[in-house]
Amino acid sequence: MITWECGTGAVQTHPLPDRARTPGVPLMPLALLALALTAFAIGTAEFAAMGLLPQIAGGLHVSIPRAGWLISAYALGVVIGAPLLTAAATRLSRKTTLIGLSGLFTVGNLLCALSPNFWCLAGARLITGLPHGAFFGAGAVAAAELAAPHLRARAVSVMFAGLTVANIVGVPLATLCGQQLGWRATMLVVVAIGALGTAAIARLIPHLPHHHEGASLRRELSTFRSGQLWLALATVVFGCGGFFACYSYIAPLLTHVSGYAPASVTLVLGLFGVGMTLGNVLGGWLADRALRPGILAMFLALAASLAGFAWSAHAEWSAAVTVVLIGAFGFAIVPLLQTLVMDKARHAPTLASATVQGAFNLANAQGAYFGGAALAAGWGWTSPTLVGGGLAVIGLVIAAASWTTDRDRGDRGTSRVVATGTADAQSPTAAPMRAAAPTTTSVTTGPRREPN
Questions:
Q1: 84-88, 183-187, 341-345: which has the minimum mean pLDDT?
Q2: How many other C-beta atoms are found inside a 10 Å radius of the C-beta of residue 249?
Q3: How many angstroms separate the CA atoms of 242 and 201, rounded?
Q4: At 62, is the secondary structure helix, strand, or coil?
Q5: For the chain, N or C: smaller number of CB within 10 Å?
Q6: What is the CATH class of 2-12+21-210+217-441?
Q7: DSSP β-bridge partners for residue 394
Q8: Nearest alpha-carbon partner for 298 in 321, 330, 339
Q9: pLDDT tens digit string along 128-137?
Protein backbone atom coordinates (compact mmCIF):
# COMPACT_ATOMS: atom_id res chain seq x y z
CA MET A 1 0.00 0.00 0.00
CA ILE A 2 1.31 3.48 -0.85
CA THR A 3 0.44 6.87 0.59
CA TRP A 4 1.75 10.12 -0.82
CA GLU A 5 1.38 13.86 -0.31
CA CYS A 6 0.89 15.67 -3.58
CA GLY A 7 2.13 18.97 -2.22
CA THR A 8 5.41 17.67 -0.82
CA GLY A 9 6.16 14.46 -2.64
CA ALA A 10 6.47 12.59 0.66
CA VAL A 11 5.86 8.87 0.34
CA GLN A 12 4.97 6.36 3.00
CA THR A 13 4.87 2.64 2.37
CA HIS A 14 3.20 -0.28 4.04
CA PRO A 15 4.18 -3.95 3.94
CA LEU A 16 3.20 -5.90 0.87
CA PRO A 17 2.60 -9.61 0.51
CA ASP A 18 5.97 -11.33 0.15
CA ARG A 19 4.82 -13.20 -2.92
CA ALA A 20 3.93 -9.98 -4.72
CA ARG A 21 7.38 -8.43 -4.38
CA THR A 22 9.78 -11.37 -4.33
CA PRO A 23 12.79 -10.60 -6.55
CA GLY A 24 12.97 -12.68 -9.69
CA VAL A 25 9.28 -13.51 -9.84
CA PRO A 26 8.14 -12.80 -13.43
CA LEU A 27 4.46 -12.50 -12.58
CA MET A 28 4.60 -8.81 -11.65
CA PRO A 29 5.11 -7.31 -15.15
CA LEU A 30 2.71 -9.84 -16.66
CA ALA A 31 0.12 -8.97 -14.02
CA LEU A 32 0.47 -5.29 -14.87
CA LEU A 33 -0.05 -6.11 -18.54
CA ALA A 34 -3.22 -7.99 -17.59
CA LEU A 35 -4.53 -4.85 -15.91
CA ALA A 36 -3.43 -2.69 -18.85
CA LEU A 37 -5.23 -5.01 -21.27
CA THR A 38 -8.52 -4.60 -19.43
CA ALA A 39 -7.94 -0.84 -19.19
CA PHE A 40 -7.43 -0.81 -22.96
CA ALA A 41 -10.74 -2.62 -23.47
CA ILE A 42 -12.60 -0.23 -21.14
CA GLY A 43 -11.18 2.87 -22.80
CA THR A 44 -11.98 1.55 -26.26
CA ALA A 45 -15.53 0.60 -25.32
CA GLU A 46 -16.28 3.99 -23.80
CA PHE A 47 -15.03 6.21 -26.59
CA ALA A 48 -15.53 4.03 -29.67
CA ALA A 49 -19.26 4.74 -29.51
CA MET A 50 -18.51 8.38 -30.31
CA GLY A 51 -16.85 7.46 -33.57
CA LEU A 52 -19.60 4.99 -34.46
CA LEU A 53 -22.67 7.13 -33.79
CA PRO A 54 -23.66 7.32 -37.50
CA GLN A 55 -23.44 3.53 -37.86
CA ILE A 56 -25.33 2.87 -34.62
CA ALA A 57 -28.03 5.40 -35.48
CA GLY A 58 -28.49 3.90 -38.95
CA GLY A 59 -28.54 0.34 -37.68
CA LEU A 60 -31.12 1.04 -34.98
CA HIS A 61 -33.13 3.51 -37.08
CA VAL A 62 -32.78 6.43 -34.70
CA SER A 63 -31.40 9.94 -35.16
CA ILE A 64 -27.80 10.77 -34.33
CA PRO A 65 -28.87 13.00 -31.39
CA ARG A 66 -30.88 10.08 -30.01
CA ALA A 67 -27.91 7.76 -30.50
CA GLY A 68 -25.90 10.24 -28.45
CA TRP A 69 -27.93 9.16 -25.44
CA LEU A 70 -25.89 5.95 -25.49
CA ILE A 71 -22.83 7.99 -24.49
CA SER A 72 -24.78 9.53 -21.63
CA ALA A 73 -26.02 6.08 -20.57
CA TYR A 74 -22.47 4.77 -20.18
CA ALA A 75 -21.44 7.89 -18.27
CA LEU A 76 -24.41 7.59 -15.91
CA GLY A 77 -23.40 3.98 -15.30
CA VAL A 78 -20.00 5.21 -14.15
CA VAL A 79 -21.62 7.87 -11.95
CA ILE A 80 -23.79 5.23 -10.26
CA GLY A 81 -21.30 2.41 -10.13
CA ALA A 82 -18.11 4.17 -9.00
CA PRO A 83 -19.18 4.85 -5.39
CA LEU A 84 -21.61 1.93 -5.02
CA LEU A 85 -19.35 -0.83 -6.31
CA THR A 86 -16.35 0.63 -4.51
CA ALA A 87 -18.30 0.47 -1.25
CA ALA A 88 -19.68 -3.00 -2.02
CA ALA A 89 -16.18 -4.40 -2.60
CA THR A 90 -14.65 -3.16 0.65
CA ARG A 91 -14.56 -6.66 2.18
CA LEU A 92 -13.30 -8.46 -0.93
CA SER A 93 -9.71 -9.09 -1.93
CA ARG A 94 -8.25 -6.99 -4.74
CA LYS A 95 -8.05 -9.99 -7.07
CA THR A 96 -11.65 -11.05 -6.50
CA THR A 97 -12.81 -7.47 -6.98
CA LEU A 98 -10.88 -7.06 -10.24
CA ILE A 99 -12.15 -10.35 -11.67
CA GLY A 100 -15.74 -9.46 -10.82
CA LEU A 101 -15.53 -5.94 -12.23
CA SER A 102 -13.76 -7.01 -15.41
CA GLY A 103 -16.29 -9.82 -15.87
CA LEU A 104 -19.22 -7.42 -15.42
CA PHE A 105 -17.71 -5.09 -18.02
CA THR A 106 -17.31 -7.97 -20.48
CA VAL A 107 -20.87 -9.19 -19.96
CA GLY A 108 -22.16 -5.66 -20.42
CA ASN A 109 -20.43 -5.37 -23.79
CA LEU A 110 -21.84 -8.73 -24.85
CA LEU A 111 -25.32 -7.44 -24.02
CA CYS A 112 -24.54 -4.37 -26.15
CA ALA A 113 -23.59 -6.52 -29.13
CA LEU A 114 -26.78 -8.59 -28.80
CA SER A 115 -29.18 -5.72 -28.12
CA PRO A 116 -32.18 -5.90 -30.49
CA ASN A 117 -33.20 -2.25 -30.20
CA PHE A 118 -32.12 1.15 -28.99
CA TRP A 119 -33.50 0.95 -25.45
CA CYS A 120 -31.94 -2.45 -24.79
CA LEU A 121 -28.62 -1.05 -26.01
CA ALA A 122 -28.99 1.98 -23.74
CA GLY A 123 -29.57 -0.31 -20.75
CA ALA A 124 -26.61 -2.47 -21.71
CA ARG A 125 -24.38 0.60 -22.02
CA LEU A 126 -25.40 1.69 -18.52
CA ILE A 127 -24.50 -1.78 -17.17
CA THR A 128 -21.18 -1.66 -19.01
CA GLY A 129 -20.29 1.65 -17.34
CA LEU A 130 -21.02 0.46 -13.79
CA PRO A 131 -17.63 -1.20 -13.10
CA HIS A 132 -15.53 1.48 -14.82
CA GLY A 133 -14.56 3.67 -11.87
CA ALA A 134 -14.28 0.87 -9.31
CA PHE A 135 -12.02 -1.13 -11.64
CA PHE A 136 -9.51 1.67 -12.05
CA GLY A 137 -9.53 2.34 -8.32
CA ALA A 138 -8.89 -1.28 -7.35
CA GLY A 139 -6.56 -1.82 -10.32
CA ALA A 140 -4.28 1.09 -9.46
CA VAL A 141 -3.97 -0.06 -5.85
CA ALA A 142 -3.23 -3.61 -7.00
CA ALA A 143 -0.59 -2.33 -9.43
CA ALA A 144 1.10 -0.37 -6.63
CA GLU A 145 1.05 -3.39 -4.33
CA LEU A 146 2.64 -5.60 -6.99
CA ALA A 147 5.70 -3.38 -7.36
CA ALA A 148 8.67 -2.55 -5.19
CA PRO A 149 8.23 0.70 -3.24
CA HIS A 150 10.40 2.76 -5.59
CA LEU A 151 8.58 1.43 -8.68
CA ARG A 152 4.97 1.79 -7.60
CA ALA A 153 4.16 4.99 -9.46
CA ARG A 154 5.63 3.43 -12.59
CA ALA A 155 3.54 0.31 -12.04
CA VAL A 156 0.35 2.38 -11.82
CA SER A 157 1.33 4.20 -15.00
CA VAL A 158 1.72 0.87 -16.81
CA MET A 159 -1.89 0.00 -16.06
CA PHE A 160 -3.17 3.40 -17.16
CA ALA A 161 -1.08 3.16 -20.32
CA GLY A 162 -3.91 0.91 -21.50
CA LEU A 163 -6.18 3.96 -21.55
CA THR A 164 -3.62 6.02 -23.42
CA VAL A 165 -3.18 3.34 -26.07
CA ALA A 166 -6.97 3.02 -26.31
CA ASN A 167 -7.30 6.70 -27.20
CA ILE A 168 -4.48 6.68 -29.74
CA VAL A 169 -4.94 3.22 -31.30
CA GLY A 170 -7.99 1.41 -29.93
CA VAL A 171 -10.68 3.98 -30.70
CA PRO A 172 -9.54 4.65 -34.30
CA LEU A 173 -9.25 0.93 -35.05
CA ALA A 174 -12.60 0.22 -33.40
CA THR A 175 -14.17 2.94 -35.52
CA LEU A 176 -12.64 1.47 -38.67
CA CYS A 177 -13.85 -2.00 -37.70
CA GLY A 178 -17.37 -0.70 -37.10
CA GLN A 179 -17.42 1.10 -40.43
CA GLN A 180 -16.36 -2.00 -42.33
CA LEU A 181 -18.07 -4.80 -40.40
CA GLY A 182 -20.80 -3.05 -38.40
CA TRP A 183 -20.87 -1.63 -34.90
CA ARG A 184 -21.84 -4.99 -33.36
CA ALA A 185 -18.56 -6.43 -34.62
CA THR A 186 -16.69 -3.74 -32.69
CA MET A 187 -18.58 -4.65 -29.52
CA LEU A 188 -17.72 -8.32 -29.98
CA VAL A 189 -14.03 -7.50 -30.42
CA VAL A 190 -14.18 -5.59 -27.14
CA VAL A 191 -15.89 -8.60 -25.54
CA ALA A 192 -13.02 -10.80 -26.66
CA ILE A 193 -10.42 -8.38 -25.29
CA GLY A 194 -12.34 -8.02 -22.03
CA ALA A 195 -12.63 -11.80 -21.64
CA LEU A 196 -8.91 -12.18 -22.30
CA GLY A 197 -8.16 -9.49 -19.74
CA THR A 198 -10.40 -11.16 -17.15
CA ALA A 199 -8.71 -14.51 -17.70
CA ALA A 200 -5.28 -12.87 -17.47
CA ILE A 201 -6.21 -11.21 -14.18
CA ALA A 202 -7.43 -14.52 -12.78
CA ARG A 203 -4.25 -16.29 -13.87
CA LEU A 204 -1.55 -13.69 -13.24
CA ILE A 205 -2.65 -11.47 -10.34
CA PRO A 206 -1.53 -12.96 -7.02
CA HIS A 207 -3.70 -12.82 -3.93
CA LEU A 208 -3.50 -9.33 -2.47
CA PRO A 209 -5.21 -8.91 0.91
CA HIS A 210 -7.49 -5.93 1.24
CA HIS A 211 -6.24 -3.05 3.37
CA HIS A 212 -9.15 -1.53 5.28
CA GLU A 213 -9.31 2.24 5.38
CA GLY A 214 -8.95 3.83 8.78
CA ALA A 215 -11.43 6.60 8.18
CA SER A 216 -15.07 5.87 8.83
CA LEU A 217 -17.75 6.47 6.26
CA ARG A 218 -19.30 9.11 8.52
CA ARG A 219 -16.01 11.00 8.64
CA GLU A 220 -15.66 10.89 4.87
CA LEU A 221 -19.23 12.06 4.37
CA SER A 222 -18.61 15.01 6.68
CA THR A 223 -16.06 16.36 4.20
CA PHE A 224 -18.88 16.98 1.74
CA ARG A 225 -20.15 19.81 3.91
CA SER A 226 -17.45 21.95 2.35
CA GLY A 227 -18.78 24.49 -0.11
CA GLN A 228 -15.36 24.65 -1.76
CA LEU A 229 -15.51 20.92 -2.54
CA TRP A 230 -18.88 21.35 -4.23
CA LEU A 231 -17.55 24.29 -6.24
CA ALA A 232 -14.65 22.10 -7.37
CA LEU A 233 -17.04 19.32 -8.40
CA ALA A 234 -19.29 21.81 -10.21
CA THR A 235 -16.24 23.02 -12.12
CA VAL A 236 -15.67 19.46 -13.29
CA VAL A 237 -19.29 18.81 -14.27
CA PHE A 238 -19.88 21.99 -16.25
CA GLY A 239 -16.42 22.82 -17.53
CA CYS A 240 -15.47 19.35 -18.72
CA GLY A 241 -18.93 18.91 -20.20
CA GLY A 242 -17.80 21.32 -22.91
CA PHE A 243 -15.20 18.85 -24.15
CA PHE A 244 -17.72 16.02 -24.37
CA ALA A 245 -20.36 18.13 -26.09
CA CYS A 246 -17.95 18.36 -29.02
CA TYR A 247 -16.23 14.95 -28.84
CA SER A 248 -19.50 13.03 -28.67
CA TYR A 249 -20.49 14.19 -32.16
CA ILE A 250 -17.07 14.55 -33.75
CA ALA A 251 -17.62 11.83 -36.39
CA PRO A 252 -20.65 13.36 -38.16
CA LEU A 253 -19.10 16.82 -37.90
CA LEU A 254 -15.94 15.65 -39.66
CA THR A 255 -17.85 13.95 -42.47
CA HIS A 256 -20.64 16.49 -43.02
CA VAL A 257 -18.71 19.73 -42.43
CA SER A 258 -14.99 19.07 -42.85
CA GLY A 259 -15.45 16.76 -45.82
CA TYR A 260 -13.53 13.78 -44.48
CA ALA A 261 -14.38 10.36 -45.86
CA PRO A 262 -15.68 7.98 -43.16
CA ALA A 263 -12.47 5.95 -43.34
CA SER A 264 -10.38 9.08 -42.72
CA VAL A 265 -12.26 9.84 -39.50
CA THR A 266 -10.21 7.13 -37.82
CA LEU A 267 -7.01 9.09 -38.51
CA VAL A 268 -8.49 12.27 -37.04
CA LEU A 269 -9.58 10.35 -33.94
CA GLY A 270 -5.98 9.21 -33.64
CA LEU A 271 -4.94 12.88 -33.65
CA PHE A 272 -7.47 13.47 -30.88
CA GLY A 273 -5.72 10.75 -28.88
CA VAL A 274 -2.31 12.34 -29.47
CA GLY A 275 -3.65 15.68 -28.27
CA MET A 276 -5.13 14.06 -25.16
CA THR A 277 -1.80 12.46 -24.30
CA LEU A 278 0.13 15.72 -24.74
CA GLY A 279 -2.46 17.59 -22.70
CA ASN A 280 -2.24 15.07 -19.90
CA VAL A 281 1.50 15.71 -19.61
CA LEU A 282 0.95 19.48 -19.69
CA GLY A 283 -1.74 19.29 -17.02
CA GLY A 284 0.46 17.26 -14.70
CA TRP A 285 3.23 19.84 -15.07
CA LEU A 286 0.85 22.72 -14.35
CA ALA A 287 -0.72 20.93 -11.36
CA ASP A 288 2.63 21.06 -9.57
CA ARG A 289 3.50 24.64 -10.44
CA ALA A 290 0.40 26.78 -10.94
CA LEU A 291 -2.75 24.90 -10.03
CA ARG A 292 -5.40 27.62 -9.97
CA PRO A 293 -3.95 29.76 -12.79
CA GLY A 294 -3.47 26.58 -14.80
CA ILE A 295 -7.14 25.66 -14.44
CA LEU A 296 -8.28 29.10 -15.58
CA ALA A 297 -5.84 29.17 -18.49
CA MET A 298 -6.82 25.71 -19.75
CA PHE A 299 -10.55 26.45 -19.53
CA LEU A 300 -10.02 29.68 -21.44
CA ALA A 301 -7.98 27.89 -24.10
CA LEU A 302 -10.55 25.07 -24.31
CA ALA A 303 -13.45 27.51 -24.70
CA ALA A 304 -11.60 29.40 -27.44
CA SER A 305 -10.67 26.25 -29.36
CA LEU A 306 -14.20 24.83 -29.13
CA ALA A 307 -15.78 28.07 -30.32
CA GLY A 308 -13.19 28.40 -33.08
CA PHE A 309 -13.91 24.85 -34.24
CA ALA A 310 -17.26 26.06 -35.56
CA TRP A 311 -15.26 27.92 -38.23
CA SER A 312 -12.09 25.85 -38.57
CA ALA A 313 -14.13 22.69 -39.13
CA HIS A 314 -14.94 23.83 -42.67
CA ALA A 315 -11.47 22.87 -43.96
CA GLU A 316 -9.77 19.51 -43.46
CA TRP A 317 -6.36 20.85 -42.41
CA SER A 318 -7.69 23.39 -39.92
CA ALA A 319 -10.13 20.86 -38.51
CA ALA A 320 -7.27 18.44 -37.86
CA VAL A 321 -5.21 21.12 -36.10
CA THR A 322 -8.15 22.20 -33.93
CA VAL A 323 -8.91 18.60 -32.99
CA VAL A 324 -5.41 18.25 -31.55
CA LEU A 325 -5.81 21.51 -29.61
CA ILE A 326 -9.19 20.52 -28.19
CA GLY A 327 -7.81 17.15 -27.12
CA ALA A 328 -4.78 18.77 -25.51
CA PHE A 329 -6.60 21.53 -23.64
CA GLY A 330 -9.49 19.24 -22.67
CA PHE A 331 -7.21 16.63 -21.11
CA ALA A 332 -4.79 19.11 -19.56
CA ILE A 333 -7.69 20.05 -17.28
CA VAL A 334 -8.08 16.50 -15.95
CA PRO A 335 -5.03 16.25 -13.63
CA LEU A 336 -5.53 19.87 -12.58
CA LEU A 337 -9.11 19.31 -11.45
CA GLN A 338 -8.26 15.92 -9.96
CA THR A 339 -5.65 17.62 -7.77
CA LEU A 340 -8.06 20.43 -6.84
CA VAL A 341 -10.81 18.05 -5.74
CA MET A 342 -8.40 15.94 -3.72
CA ASP A 343 -7.10 19.13 -2.09
CA LYS A 344 -10.61 20.02 -0.97
CA ALA A 345 -11.38 16.49 0.25
CA ARG A 346 -8.03 15.55 1.78
CA HIS A 347 -9.78 13.88 4.74
CA ALA A 348 -12.02 11.72 2.54
CA PRO A 349 -9.76 10.38 -0.19
CA THR A 350 -11.66 7.18 -0.95
CA LEU A 351 -15.16 8.63 -1.27
CA ALA A 352 -13.93 11.82 -2.91
CA SER A 353 -12.05 9.83 -5.52
CA ALA A 354 -15.17 7.90 -6.42
CA THR A 355 -17.13 11.15 -6.47
CA VAL A 356 -14.72 12.92 -8.81
CA GLN A 357 -14.89 9.90 -11.11
CA GLY A 358 -18.64 10.36 -11.15
CA ALA A 359 -18.31 14.10 -11.71
CA PHE A 360 -16.18 13.63 -14.82
CA ASN A 361 -18.68 11.17 -16.21
CA LEU A 362 -21.62 13.38 -15.31
CA ALA A 363 -19.83 15.97 -17.43
CA ASN A 364 -19.70 13.35 -20.17
CA ALA A 365 -23.42 12.66 -19.86
CA GLN A 366 -24.62 16.25 -19.80
CA GLY A 367 -22.18 17.36 -22.50
CA ALA A 368 -23.47 14.66 -24.85
CA TYR A 369 -27.06 15.55 -23.94
CA PHE A 370 -26.77 19.29 -24.59
CA GLY A 371 -24.74 18.75 -27.74
CA GLY A 372 -27.41 16.38 -29.02
CA ALA A 373 -30.15 18.83 -28.04
CA ALA A 374 -28.49 21.50 -30.21
CA LEU A 375 -28.42 19.09 -33.15
CA ALA A 376 -32.03 18.05 -32.59
CA ALA A 377 -33.03 21.73 -32.60
CA GLY A 378 -31.63 22.03 -36.12
CA TRP A 379 -28.74 24.34 -35.26
CA GLY A 380 -26.30 22.47 -37.49
CA TRP A 381 -23.44 20.02 -37.16
CA THR A 382 -21.10 22.61 -35.64
CA SER A 383 -23.54 23.60 -32.89
CA PRO A 384 -22.18 21.07 -30.34
CA THR A 385 -18.81 22.84 -30.48
CA LEU A 386 -20.47 26.16 -29.62
CA VAL A 387 -22.42 24.49 -26.82
CA GLY A 388 -19.14 23.04 -25.60
CA GLY A 389 -17.51 26.46 -25.64
CA GLY A 390 -20.35 27.84 -23.54
CA LEU A 391 -20.02 25.02 -20.98
CA ALA A 392 -16.27 25.60 -20.78
CA VAL A 393 -16.92 29.28 -20.04
CA ILE A 394 -19.30 28.27 -17.24
CA GLY A 395 -16.55 26.05 -15.82
CA LEU A 396 -14.15 28.98 -16.07
CA VAL A 397 -16.52 31.25 -14.15
CA ILE A 398 -17.07 28.67 -11.39
CA ALA A 399 -13.33 28.04 -11.10
CA ALA A 400 -12.65 31.78 -10.84
CA ALA A 401 -15.37 32.17 -8.18
CA SER A 402 -13.91 29.27 -6.21
CA TRP A 403 -10.42 30.78 -6.30
CA THR A 404 -11.75 34.20 -5.30
CA THR A 405 -13.59 32.66 -2.35
CA ASP A 406 -10.43 30.88 -1.24
CA ARG A 407 -8.42 34.09 -1.42
CA ASP A 408 -11.08 36.05 0.50
CA ARG A 409 -10.98 33.44 3.25
CA GLY A 410 -7.20 33.70 3.40
CA ASP A 411 -6.68 30.12 2.22
CA ARG A 412 -3.52 31.01 0.33
CA GLY A 413 -1.16 28.38 1.58
CA THR A 414 -0.08 25.27 -0.19
CA SER A 415 -2.62 22.55 0.30
CA ARG A 416 -1.40 19.09 1.00
CA VAL A 417 -3.24 16.14 -0.44
CA VAL A 418 -2.94 12.87 1.40
CA ALA A 419 -4.34 10.04 -0.64
CA THR A 420 -4.13 6.31 -0.69
CA GLY A 421 -3.62 4.33 -3.83
CA THR A 422 -7.37 3.92 -4.11
CA ALA A 423 -7.99 7.62 -3.94
CA ASP A 424 -5.58 8.71 -6.59
CA ALA A 425 -6.16 5.76 -8.80
CA GLN A 426 -9.68 6.56 -9.85
CA SER A 427 -8.68 9.44 -12.01
CA PRO A 428 -11.05 10.08 -15.00
CA THR A 429 -10.55 8.95 -17.94
CA ALA A 430 -12.14 9.95 -19.21
CA ALA A 431 -11.63 9.81 -19.46
CA PRO A 432 -10.35 9.60 -19.94
CA MET A 433 -11.31 12.08 -19.39
CA ARG A 434 -10.41 8.73 -17.92
CA ALA A 435 -7.49 8.43 -20.16
CA ALA A 436 -4.11 8.73 -18.40
CA ALA A 437 -4.61 11.39 -15.77
CA PRO A 438 -3.38 9.21 -12.90
CA THR A 439 0.01 8.76 -14.60
CA THR A 440 0.67 12.45 -14.04
CA THR A 441 -1.13 13.04 -10.77
CA SER A 442 -0.22 9.87 -8.89
CA VAL A 443 3.07 11.29 -7.63
CA THR A 444 3.76 15.00 -7.79
CA THR A 445 6.93 16.41 -6.36
CA GLY A 446 7.95 19.77 -5.04
CA PRO A 447 5.88 22.62 -3.62
CA ARG A 448 3.52 24.51 -5.83
CA ARG A 449 4.74 27.88 -6.91
CA GLU A 450 1.35 29.52 -6.85
CA PRO A 451 -1.13 29.81 -4.02
CA ASN A 452 -4.00 27.38 -4.03
A1: 341-345
A2: 31
A3: 36
A4: coil
A5: N
A6: mainly alpha
A7: none
A8: 330
A9: 999 988 888 7
Q: Which residues pair with residue 3 across a beta bridge?
A: 12, 420
Report angle CA 294, 140, 129 to the nearest 5 degrees.
Answer: 85
Does residue 398 surpass a pLDDT of 90?
Answer: yes
Q: What is the mean pLDDT of residues 62-78?
A: 88
Cβ distance 326 to 302 under 8 Å?
yes
Rounded to an integer, what distance in angstroms lies between the CA atom of residue 281 and that of residue 303?
20
In this model, does residue 282 exceed pLDDT 60? Answer: yes
- Give dist(CA 399, CA 395) in Å, integer: 6
Proportion of the chain in helix, strand, coil states, percent, rounded to 5: 75, 5, 20
Q: What percentage of the chain exceeds 70 in pLDDT?
A: 77
The whole-number pLDDT of residue 346 equals 67
* Domain spans, the chain: 2-12+21-210+217-441
Q: How far is CA 41 from CA 103, 191, 204, 256, 439, in A?
A: 12, 8, 18, 29, 18
**In this structure, are residues 340 and 239 in contact, taking their beta carbons and an 8 Å threshold?**
no
Cis peptide before 161 (omega within 30 of 0): no
pLDDT of residue 320: 94
Cβ density class 198-228: b for 16+ within 10 Å, e for less: bbbbeebbbebebbebeeeeeebeebeeeeb
Distance in Å from the first CA to the final CA of the chain: 28
Question: Taking the CA of residue 259 as centre, how many other CA atoms within 13 Å lie in the half-sphere pointing to its CB?
Answer: 6
